[in-house]
Amino acid sequence: MAVADEIEQALSVLVGLPLWGIGRAADLVWLQFGDRRAVKSWRGTDKEVGDYALHLQCAWRITLKGKIVIGRGDIFCPSEESDESLPADFDWQKSNRFDRVVAEFLQNESRQLVVRRIDVGDAGSLTVLLEEGYKLEIFPQDSGAGEH
Question: Rounded to whole angstroms, how far apart are CA atoms 35 and 25?
């Protein structure tokens, strides 16, 4: 089976399900789809997850009408826009634009966007078309054979 066919088959379960959560662990981004359910974290605390999660550690972005709403690079930018260079004490792992924009975009996980279609492209790239015209675009950008 071709890689594109494998991707399409694996992700076809997302069609019709809502995207309701986006978060990160360092620079790995996760997206939650489907119904919410409670599970125990590796620390033993309760957390909420979706029926399916997509983990990304490659280039990605969510667009609307040709404009980037949020993307991987936002993780490495200060929370607030500035014309000045990065502050000396900036620590992207503590606070960044990604964390702020995700909260606004999904309205603190009260907003859901249903997956309408999955389009698979070349070399593992894909587009997840969401309600309201939003697109999640994923594009691995290195020649390695491992996960992206």
Answer: 21
**Assigned domain for 148 exists:** no
The parent domain of residue 13 ranges over 3-139
Please give the tally of structural domains in the chain: 1
Residue 4 contacts by C-beta under 8 Å, 6 or more apart in sequence? 120, 121, 122
- Is 92 part of a structural domain of the chain? yes
Contacts of 112 (CB under 8 A, 6+ apart): 18, 19, 20
Beta strands in 26-125 (DSSP E): 28-40, 46-56, 59-64, 67-71, 113-120
Which residues lie closer than 8 Å to 64 by C-beta, 6 or more apart?
132, 133, 134, 135
Full-model pTM: 0.87
Residue type at position 82: S
Question: Is the backbone of residue 132 left (phi > 0), alpha (psi -120 to 50) or beta?
Answer: left
For 66-77, how does the pLDDT look when each residue is reduced to its tens digit (9 = 90+)?
999 999 999 988
Write out the two tokens for 123.
């070399």
Tens digits of residue pLDDT in 26-37: 889 999 999 999
Whether residue 9 is contained in a domain is answered as yes
**Is 106 a member of any domain?**
yes
